[in-house]
Amino acid sequence: MMDDRLDDQLRDAARDYNEPPETPREEMWAAIQAERAGIKEAETTENDLSVLPIRRFRHFRRFTVRPLAWGAGIAALLALGIGLGRLSVHRPRTTPAPVAVAAVAPRVSSTAYHLATTEHLSQSETFLTLFKASVRGQGDERLASATARQLLATNRLLLDSPAASDTRTRLLLQDLELVLAEIAQLSSQPRSRDLQLITEGMEQGGVLSRLRTAVPAGTSATQGAL
Amino acid sequence: MEERELITRVLAGDPSAERALYDAHVDRVFRLVYRMAGDMDKAQDYTQETFIRAFSRLQSFRGDSALSTWLGSIAISVTLNGLRKVRRRNERELDLDAAAPVGHTVREAEPDLKVRLNQAIDDLPDGYRAVFVMHDVEGYTHEEIATSLGVHPGTSKAQLFRARARLREVLADFAKD
User: Fold this and answer.
1) Facing A36 at nearest CB: one of B26, B55, B85
2) Fewer CB near the terminus (10 Å): N or C of chain A?
3) CATH number corresponding to B1-102
């Protein structure tokens, strides 16, 4: 009786819990449009640089692509050479000013984040490649959900990190989160329809190919093997 | 306009269809997000993020559930992730504040049921709170909640039962009055 009365009171009072004001439609729409325009612009710029290796593999016989590929290779070698040169130059020790210490800290954090992200993307790429092969070969996918859960936890940590500022990586991690969550939710006896939907989702979003593009060559054990 | 047709037009890049989709769903998304976040700035941020993600992933929407449910699942995921991030930041700041404790001896008046209830709902674990807010406050069905949170409807029912039990426990002294 008392519980019923309290339940009624609870229900009534809960209706006022964080009562939403009027939706600021126009303000949010303007922000969404601006953000999406920014993302599109970033993707266009990045695509101009990142499609080169893909084009090279797909149309390696076309002469017109070769100068670009060579150009990219030379640029990469030059950058590597300059980087190595700078690292190997012996500089006299000077006492760093306090401001220099503060300036270095974010770079270290960003480097650590980049390394952790690369490692995670590499593991995810390996996992998804094996998962896809397992689905094709009618293998046992039950173990996959446990691995997907672990990867999902890391994925969420990386997404939540204050260092997650790169739009392209964030979008990839967000799409990866969706795929990993679907695999993590597979029951002990997954239906073939579920598996098909997951692999279709992976293909539609181009998750695996984007992972391969994002992971530097040589980082992944199965890259190109399956 | 049919939902499927609207989605097809959005995917084809029709800006008026994008706006129509936004208009059709923004109130429901914003209400849910605001209920969970309890703050205008956060609610706006999370609602915007929900639609940005939805537009970029619309191609992968399979139509297994209603578009509103799919948007709800993105909204709840964005909101819970966002709130977790804020909580972690606040905890770090609180750790620093704790280094210099200041005696707080002001005795506050006993809050009424509504204030106590709001506090008790805020203190629920994320999963319980999401289910409670979606079901008891916003009127979602267990099927919608289950799809949004990626759990079975039975889990949603069990979590609601536990959330209510916890709230009853915290507010038990009101029942005695």
Assistant:
1) B55
2) N
3) 1.10.1740.10
pLDDT per residue as tens digits for the range B14-52: 999 999 999 999 999 999 999 999 999 999 999 999 999
What is this structure's pTM?
0.54
Higher pLDDT, B130 or A110: B130
Q: Give B-chain residues touching A202 at CB under 8 angstroms.
A: none
| Closest Cβ opposite residue A32 in set B38, B48, B114 | B48
Chain A contacts of B134, Cβ < 8 Å?
Answer: none
Number of H helices, E strands in chain A: 8, 0
Q: Burial letters for A54-83: b for 16+ Cβ neighbours within 10 Å, e otherwise?
A: eebeeeeeeeeeeeeeeeeeeeeeeeeeee
Here the tokens at position A192 are 């073939």
> What whole-number distance in Å separates Cα of residue A170 and Cα of residue A177?
10
Same domain for A127 and A211, yes or no, is: yes
Q: What percentage of residues in chain B have a pLDDT greater than 70?
A: 86
User: Inter-chain contact B137–A15, Cβ cutoff 8 Å?
Assistant: yes
Query: Quick one: chain A helix, strand, coil %, rounded to 5?
Result: 75, 0, 25
Instruction: Check whether residue A188 and residue A142 sit in a common domain.
Output: yes
> What's the token pair of residue A65?
């692509």
SS3 B54: helix
Tokens linked to B120: 């008790």
List the end-to-end C-alpha distance of chain B, in Å, as a whole number: 54
Instruction: Please state, in angstroms and rounded to a whole number, the distance separating the CA atoms of residues B92 and A155.
Output: 21
The total number of structural domains that make up chain A: 2
Amino acid letter, residue B55 = F
What is the CATH class of B105-172?
Answer: mainly alpha
Domain residues for A71? 44-86
Are the C-beta atoms of residues A220 and A214 closer than 8 Å to each other? Answer: no
pLDDT class for B55, splitting at 50, 70, 90?
A: very high
For the segment A110-137, the average pLDDT, to the nearest whole number, is 83
In a domain, A219, yes or no: yes
Q: How far is B103 from chain A (nearest CA, A)?
A: 30
Q: What is the dihedral of CA A7, A13, A17, A20, to 10 degrees?
A: 130
Looking at the structure, tell me whether residues A178 and A79 fall in a common domain: no
Place of tokens 């266009």: A44
Q: Inter-chain contact A36–B60, Cβ cutoff 8 Å?
A: no
Instruction: Report the alpha-carbon distance of residue B79 to residue B37 in Å, rounded.
Output: 7
